[in-house]
Amino acid sequence: MPQRTAITPAVRRATEYDLVELLRLRTLLFDDLGGGFFNPPSDDGSWLDALAMVLKEQLTAEDVRILVVDGDGDGGCGGGGGRDSDGCGRGGGLAACGIGTIEQRLPGPHLRNGRIGHVIGVVTDPAHRRRGHSRAIMRGLLDWFREREAARVDLYASAEGEPLYRDLGFTDLPDPALYWRP
Question: pTM for the complete prediction?
Answer without folding.
Answer: 0.82
